[in-house]
Amino acid sequence: MKGYTSRDVARLLGLTVAQVRGFARDGFLSPSTARGRRTLQFSFQDLVVLRTAKALVGARIPPRRIRRALKKLRQQLPRGRSLAELHIAAEGDRIVVRDGSTAWNPESEQTHLDFAVSELATRAAPIARRAAQAARAAEGELDAEDWYELGLELEAVDPDEARDAYRRALELEAHHADAHVNLGRLLHEEGLVEEAERHYRLALREDPEHATAAFDLGIALEDLGRPKDAIEAYRTALATDPRLADAHYNVARLYERVGKKAAALRHLSIYRRLTREG
């Protein structure tokens, strides 16, 4: 369900087709081959990596460092979540990827780089919408995983189309936990918090160790004015993923609010240690 051809990518990013194919051969992209054709198809995540590559080349970073940085970046971009809110920049001697309050660095040498992924999403939106239209035209040929993958592609560029894709995935496979989580998050962002809570809980029913579902449920419960329930949701997330820094921060804040200062300090200390490590 990847919707960007080599020519699309070249036009969006101001590269030549040969450069795009050269970056693909370097191994830090994951293009697929269109069904029945030999044309390479790239994902929006590939666009983010290539946009970073172009900036690094423009800053005259040595090719060896570019390859190392981009392979690490590729591994660390969030999977199953929208990339639109990411901001990729140079911070001191590090490449830093920011996602809300979280930051991590894919490499540790000086770079000159600063761009918001949302800008790229705006430029890519028309192509992504055409991919959604093509998917609907071939509806009978797509399974739940196809619609889920399309939803991932569309989140950054067209949340409405992404919601539709996730709903179609769930019509075909009601037990698809990741589709429930991502649909829930999009509904949550739209202000439909109770409906989002329902999808998070359905995801956890299918996969009780889904840390992202539990974390997002905690945020929803906070928004619904249920701090004690939110604490339990964050604790569930941390039982599966003890290194989930934002969950430690959120639960520390809630423990402080309900007067459990020792617990708050413990989680805040873990949060600080984890973010220093990142």
Helix-strand layout with pairing:
Layout: E1 4-5, H1 6-13, H2 17-25, E2 32-33, E3 40-42, H3 44-58, H4 63-76, E4 86-91, E5 94-99, E6 102-107, E7 114-116, H5 117-137, H6 144-155, H7 159-172, H8 177-189, H9 193-206, H10 211-223, H11 227-240, H12 245-257, H13 261-277
Antiparallel strand pairs: 1-3, 2-3, 4-5, 4-7, 5-6
Describe the structure.
By secondary structure, the chain is of the alpha+beta class. The protein has helices at residues 6-13, 17-25, 44-58, 63-76, 117-137, 144-155, 159-172, 177-189, 193-206, 211-223, 227-240, 245-257, 261-277, and strands at residues 4-5, 32-33, 40-42, 86-91, 94-99, 102-107, 114-116. It has a four-stranded antiparallel sheet with strand order 6-5-4-7. Strand 5 (94-99) and strand 6 (102-107) form a beta hairpin.
Alpha-carbon Rg, integer? 20 Å
Give the low-confidence spans: 101-105, 108-114
The helicity comes to 55-70%
Mean pLDDT over the full residue set: 79
> For the largest beta sheet, what order do the strands appear in spatially?
6-5-4-7
Structural class: alpha+beta
Query: What is the molecular shape?
Result: globular
How many strands appear in the DSSP assignment? 7
Major β-sheet profile: 4 strands, antiparallel
Report the sheet-strand fraction: 5-15%
How far apart, in Å, are the first and last alpha carbons? Answer: 32 Å
Order of helices and strands: EHHEEHHEEEEHHHHHHHHH
Number of helices: 13
Keywords:
alpha+beta, 13 helices, 4-stranded antiparallel sheet
What's the gist of this structure?
The chain contains 13 helices and seven strands. By secondary structure, the protein is an alpha+beta fold. The protein starts with a strand and ends with a helix.
